[in-house]
Amino acid sequence: MPEVIKIEGGHRLNGMVRISGSKNATVALIPATILADGPVTIFGVPEINDVDALIELLFELNADVKKVKDHVVIDPSNLKNIMLESEAVGKLRASYYFMGALLGKYKHVRMKIPGGCNLGPRPIDLHIKGFEALGATIEYEEGLYDIKADRLIGNKIYLDIASVGATINIMLAAVKAEGRTIIENAAKEPETIDVANLLTKMGAKIRGVGTDTITIDGVKKLNGTFHEIIPDRIEAGTYLIFAAAMGNRVVIDNVIPQHLDALISKLEEMGVDLELVNDSIVVYGRKQNLKSINIKTQTYPGFPTDLQQPLTTLMTQAIGQSSVKETIYKERFKHCAELNKMGADILETGYAQSYINGNTKLKGTKVQATDLRCGAALVLAGLIADGVTEISDIYHIDRGYDEIDLKLNELGAKIWRESIDD
Ligand code: EPU
């Protein structure tokens, strides 16, 4: 039976919240493990549905997987390179990392088109272009990809867009290729660095991650290893925004503050009082009215697209008009109509821009999580609003936020789940 999340608004947040391992790193690290010839142990795995779907795919591939609390041991020794076409592939976008990993390991992969949040068009042409540059041929018929190569040979690949997915997928395909691969205009997001770190521990030879140019010298064999996932900068950013709106004193623990520079400086510009203490950030209650701000999403280290949605909810509480310019996913504005149902005053121009007239009173009502970060934006609206907010389609939220209801209740919020009839 589907569930909704209900939130009784108006309760202040206090205490400490521990941030889980990064979703967007985890969803690439899990497929990356199959390149090894022995067991790989990953620590800090978040409790999210995307992980469950990837583990389902590992089982289909005949990997031996053991998950105990937040660590997972994956032994790909008896892997079978079967066609990936089950429902699990369509549950998330990151299933496409099996393309690079299986191609790198077997020089052949067959899988159906991946799923993921509907944020407007999300092509994978750059991934495909990268595989082709390494010598693969691609057939695509009725939603199924068949990608194969006699030999994978290193090459120079320039990405027209610094795509996170393409950068990681090409790394996965190239680590066992013959010779040198150079990825130019590579993504610099911390998650790409985390994946490269795991691959390096497995024996891969990768240089330049975190810069525009990544150089990979292919190796013949990759071994098992241990790896701890970096903290989730988007989950951390979401709780920073929650605390900025409703916190008295909230400690956000297990963060790499540097990963959040863009958000922190924008929150400070709004007048949020916060302090960095080692690997945690303390947010103090609001002492003044929040000021309106303008943001433009960009690739890392610019302002992350994933946080513009929850930040939009905070902007509804600022004095004056704020704006969001989206340069990564031009249609990532579905949260605006939902927030307007609760009393927000947001104009979406249709040209990848929204204007948020602030200082609006939000009222609890029924809203729909149209995608993961829209879900986070609505949870915040529920925390702020008068009365009870009911959020449907919460499977989007459970895809990416580890026990959000539990973590928020521990901070003093009133949030619970209820089953509803289909
Ligand atoms: N793009 C192309 N062709 C490609 C690949 C990407 O045109 O072959 C475009 C996309 O359509 C988009 C832009 O390039 O306009 C950037 O896409 P990118 O490939 O960097 O994004 P992604 O790898 O699909 C990851 C995260 C997203 C996050 C973006 C941007 C994962 C699983 N997803 O997506 O996370 O928004 O990077 O940082 O890592 C989320 O967590 O809510 C989420 C959607």
Description:
By secondary structure, the chain is α+β, with helices and mostly antiparallel strands. The chain is built from 14 helices and 23 strands. The protein is 33% helix and 25% strand. The strands form six sheets. A four-stranded mixed beta sheet has the order 21-22-1-23, with helices on one face. The chain is globular, with a radius of gyration of 21 Å. Strand 11 and strand 12 (214-217) form a beta hairpin. It binds uridine-diphosphate-2(N-acetylglucosaminyl) butyric acid. Residues 24, 27, 93-94, 117, 122-127, 161, 163-166, 187, 189, 234, 305-306, 328-329, 372-373, 400 line the site of uridine-diphosphate-2(N-acetylglucosaminyl) butyric acid (EPU).
How would you describe this structure in keywords?
binds uridine-diphosphate-2(N-acetylglucosaminyl) butyric acid, 422 residues, 14 helices, four-stranded mixed sheet, 23 strands, alpha+beta
The gist of it:
Helix content is 33%, strand content 25%. With 422 residues, the chain is α+β, with helices and mostly antiparallel strands. A hairpin with a 2-residue loop joins β7 (137-141) and β8.
Physical arrangement of strands within the biggest beta sheet: 21-22-1-23
Bound molecules: uridine-diphosphate-2(N-acetylglucosaminyl) butyric acid
Biggest beta sheet attributes: 4 strands, mixed
Give a count of the beta strands, DSSP E runs of length 2 or more: 23
Uncertain runs are none
Q: Which descriptor suits the 3D outline?
A: globular
Structure classification = alpha+beta
Distance between the termini: 7 Å
Beta-strand content: 25-35%
The Cα radius of gyration reads 21 Å
State the helical fraction. Answer: 25-40%
Average pLDDT for all residues = 96
Number of helices: 14
